[in-house]
Write a structure and sequence with these properties.
Elements (H helix, E strand, L loop, with lengths): L1 H15 L5 H11 L12 H8 L7 E4 L2 E4 L8 H11 L19 E2 L6 E9 L5 E9 L12 E3 H13 L6 H48 L5 H24 L5 H22 L3 H11 E6 L4 E5 L3 H17 L2
Parallel strand pairs: 3-7
Antiparallel strand pairs: 1-2, 4-5, 5-6, 7-8
The protein binds zinc ion.
Length: 327
């Protein structure tokens, strides 16, 4: 049925965009006039899951444990199918409902690690009108008795994120300048350190070769017996192999690395500001690129920073606490 094909295509395309849960997908399909069946117009989640997992749409026919490929027209592109599979299996985080930009896995509960979910609460005003509040709460519907209520007003959670990002930036322009200078120097430091180490290793290697020569001469001259020669040779060979390995592992210092670190540092200094002026998609990218995970308890937001942001954040904390101690 061509109509059916259009509906299936629409389901894959919408879901692949990453902007839908089964619920929002179901509602949108209904609004667009794609119905499940006459008696039940809206798609049930199991029907959606069944369609999104059906490899028949990418031209595979499974029969008796065998896969017959390529004999059927593909309704869905492999890329779109794979993208949907990634989302279904959580390999790709959904960008979620645009109404609740911080929901959909971006932030998780510190007590049970479930995603924070958004909710809209309407409250009647005394003056008559209705006021809507957006909250984020732990999505766990069966929290244990030790699980406190994890529920944040949207603007308070926003504020906590801005403060967390602001922790990356140094308090004064002088400190920023000093830190940049230190970063600019570090590749040069690294380079000279590596050169010294390379020279040490090369010297050690030539010493080992000379020792092997002397050992061989002593053996040929009859001043070292068979067993001692074999044992000593094995020892020297092992040492030489180890030093050679260390020389090979040294690698080169990439001067571009220094520039990249500086760029990241400069960006980190502005992260909170960029966040404030960005749309939802960019905000998600900012959080994803800076933090490995973000957890909220009933009172605090805790993030684990990625490298090198963890280093910046720790450095800054150190600075702060040092500053606090000075009278
Ligand atoms: Zn929870």
């Amino acid at each position: 049925m061509p109509e059916r094909a259009a509906t299936v295509k629409r389901i894959f395309n919408l879901y692949a965009s990453g902007g839908h849960t089964f619920k929002t997908l179901r509602d949108l399909l209904y609004e667009e006039g794609h119905t499940f069946r006459q008696s039940q117009k809206r798609f049930h989640r199991s029907a959606l899951a069944c369609i999104l997992n059906n490899r028949f749409y990418i031209g595979e026919l499974h029969r008796h444990g065998q896969v017959y490929a390529g004999r059927y027209e593909r309704l869905i592109d492999q890329d779109i199918f794979d993208q949907c599979q990634n989302i279904l299996h959580g390999r790709n985080r959904r960008t979620g409902n645009p109404e609740f930009p911080l929901a959909g896995g971006l932030i998780t509960c510190a007590f049970c690690e479930q995603s924070m979910t958004g909710e809209r609460i309407r409250r009647k005003r005394k003056s008559g009108g209705v006021r809507e509040h957006i909250y984020y709460r732990c999505a766990n519907n069966a929290p244990g008795t030790n699980h406190p209520t994890v529920r944040w007003k949207a603007h308070e959670l926003e504020q906590a994120i801005v403060e967390d990002l602001a922790r990356l930036s140094l308090p004064t322009p002088e400190m920023v300048a000093w830190f940049r200078l230190a970063l600019e120097d570090s590749p040069a430091d690294l380079l000279s350190h590596q050169r010294r180490r390379a020279a040490t290793l090369a010297k050690r290697k030539s010493e080992l070769v000379a020792m092997q020569d002397r050992l061989l001469n002593a053996y040929l001259a009859g001043t070292v017996d068979d067993d001692a020669f074999k044992a000593k040779t094995a020892e020297l060979m092992a040492d030489t192999a180890r030093v050679t390995e260390q020389i090979d592992a040294q690698g080169d210092v990439d001067p571009a690395r220094g520039k990249a670190v500086l760029a990241v540092f400069d960006w980190s200094q502005k992260a909170a500001k960029i966040w404030r002026g960005s749309n939802t998609a960019v905000r998600r990218q900012i959080l994803d690129s800076i933090c490995l995970n973000r957890q909220v308890s009933d009172v605090t937001l805790v993030t684990t920073k990625r490298k090198p942001f963890d280093f910046f954040a720790e450095r800054l904390d150190l600075k702060k606490s040092r500053g606090d101690r000075t009278p």
